[in-house]
Design a protein that fits this description.
The structure is a homodimer. Chain A is an alpha/beta fold and about 325 residues long. The first copy, chain A, contains 11 helices and 15 strands. Chain A folds into 2 domains: about 170 residues, Peroxisomal Thiolase, Chain A, domain 1, CATH 3.40.47; about 150 residues, Peroxisomal Thiolase, Chain A, domain 1.
Amino acid sequence: MKRIGKQTLEFTTPPKIESHGAIGGKKEAGGPLAADFDQTFQDTSLQTESWEKAEAQLQKEAVAVALAKAGRKPGDLDFLLAGDLLNQCISSTFGLLDYNVPFLGQYGACSTMAQTLLMASVLVDSGAARRAAAVTSSHFCSAERQFRTPLEYGAQRTPTAQWTATAAGCAVVSTQGPITVQKGLAGKIVDLGVKDPANMGAAMAPAAADSIYQFLQDTGTGPQDYDGIYTGDLGQVGTDLLYQTLEQNGLDIRARHQDCGLLLFDCGSQDVHAGGSGCGCSASVLCGHILNRMEAGGLKSILFCATGALMSPTSSQQGESIPGICHILHLTR
Amino acid sequence: MKRIGKQTLEFTTPPKIESHGAIGGKKEAGGPLAADFDQTFQDTSLQTESWEKAEAQLQKEAVAVALAKAGRKPGDLDFLLAGDLLNQCISSTFGLLDYNVPFLGQYGACSTMAQTLLMASVLVDSGAARRAAAVTSSHFCSAERQFRTPLEYGAQRTPTAQWTATAAGCAVVSTQGPITVQKGLAGKIVDLGVKDPANMGAAMAPAAADSIYQFLQDTGTGPQDYDGIYTGDLGQVGTDLLYQTLEQNGLDIRARHQDCGLLLFDCGSQDVHAGGSGCGCSASVLCGHILNRMEAGGLKSILFCATGALMSPTSSQQGESIPGICHILHLTR
C-alpha cells in the first residue's frame, strides 16, 4: 500500500470484503433497517444470564453468519480483529474465544468497526493475512448500566442522548469478494472540550469533520465523488454540528451524507431521542444496509466514517472532556 | 512480509526499533532495574490530581523520551498505537491526545506492548507508516482501585497476587535503527478455566505456552537459538506453570527464559509477592532493560512474549474464567 497526502492509505492490491453479517436486537428489528439484518433476536438476553454475555453472543453470531455466507470456517481466518465498549472489551474476548483464531483486540469506542476493518485490510493487503475478520458489538442494556445507570433505576434520558444499539456487525476481508477496500484513514484524537456524556454526537462531530476534511484533501476529491458519505453515530445533534464545521471549511456534504445513528432507528416513533449509537450501530448498518445496497448495485462508491468517543465514566467524573476520533474507509463495488 | 507455518509473520523489509523509552515510579526506581529507566518519579501522582491522570502522564512521558532519544518530533510519527488496562483505555487517550498523531487504540491487557509493537512493525513493513510509536502503561494505584479495591481499604494481598507496575514503555519503529524486528506472532485466546483474579500468572501461562510452542514450531527453532526468551508478567506462579506445560510438549526453556515480572522487582525485599504485572511491566522492561542490553551487545537475538489476561471485574463477578493471550516478537541486533 502507499501513503497519499498527510494521512490516507491507498491499498495497492486492494483487499476485498468477501462477506458480511449483521445481527440485531428487538428494537433494531422494529426499525427501518429490519430487512437488512441477517438475524435478529426478540429476546435481547439471547437466552444468556447477563447483558454482558448476551453482547458477547451477538459478536459470536455475527462472525458465524459472515463466515457461513462466505462458505468459510473459523480455521480459514488468519486473524480476528475485534473490540467493544465494555470494560476491558469482554464482549470480544468471551464472544470470540471459541473460534481459536489469532486475536488482536482493538479499541476505538464506536469507531471500532472502521478501525477493525482498516486493520484487517492492512493485514490482507500486506500479505500478513490471507483472510481476516473485523467485528464489533454493543448492547443497550450492558452499555446503560456501565456508562450511565442500570435500567432498573428508570433514569430519564436527555433530548441529546442517543440509544445504544443492540447489534453486531462482522466483515470478512480477503483477496476476493464483491466489495473493494480502496483507501483508509486513521483519525487523530480531537477534543474541542465537550464534557456532556449525554451528548456524544457533539463530542464526536469535530473528529468526523477533521477526518473527512483530511481525507478529501489527501485524495483531491469532493463530496460529489461519492454516492454516500456515512458517519458512524453522530445522531441529530452531531450531524448538525458536522455540517456547520465542514461549512466553515468550505465543504457541503449534505447531499451525500447519511448518519448510521439516524438510519438504524426511526427517531420519532422509536423514542431514541437524538439517534442510535454504540459500536454495533455503525457496524450493523455497514455490514447490513450499506454493503447490501452496494452489492445490489445502488451504491458504487462510499465513505464509511465511523466515530468514537474516547471517554470513560471515570474520566467524566474527574472533569475531563470527551475526545473523539473518526476512522474512514473508501469502499467501492 | 510473509507467513511462516501456521501463525508466524516474517518481516521482509524488516522494521527497526529506532529508539525506546522507559518510565517508572518510586518502587520501580528502587528495584533491580533502576538504572535502565530513562526517567523515574518519586511522586507517583506525577503532580496530577488522580491516579488515572498520573498514568496518562506516564504514557505521555514515555513517548516524549523515545522521540527525544531519536531526535524526532511528534509530527514525524504517522501512527501512535497504544492501549492500557483502564476502562476504555483512558490513559492512552488522555496521555496521547496532545501529540495530534493518527491514533489506533489497541487492547491486549498486559500483552499490549507486544501487540502495539507488532502492529507498528506491520504498518512500517507494509509501507503504511514511515514511522510509528508503540506505547503502553500501567499504574499500581489506578489498577488496584479499578480491578481490586481502592488502596484506602488496606486489603491484604494473596501470595499468588502480582504487583502492577507504575511504568510505561514506548518504542519508535521505522526503517532505520539498531534493533531489527524479524518476526512476529499474534496469539490466540487461550482459556484453561482459571478463575482466580488474584492469580493472573496461572491464567496467562497456558497462552504463553501455546504461543511460544507455535512460534518455535513455525520457525523450526528451539530455545537454544535465542539469547533470551522473555515472557511478559507471569510472575513466579505462572513461570512454574509455563515450564511444566512446555515440558509436557518436550520443550525446556529454563536456560534461556526470564520473566519481566520477576526482573522488575526483587520479590523478596520489595513485598510484591509473586512478581510484577501490568501493561507497564513488560513494556518498561523491554523498552529499558532488554533493549539496552541488546544495544550494548550482551543480547543478539531474543523473543519478547508479552502475556495478557483478558478479563474484567464484571466477567469475574459473573463467574467467567480468565482467558489469556500472548503475542511474540523476535528481535535481533
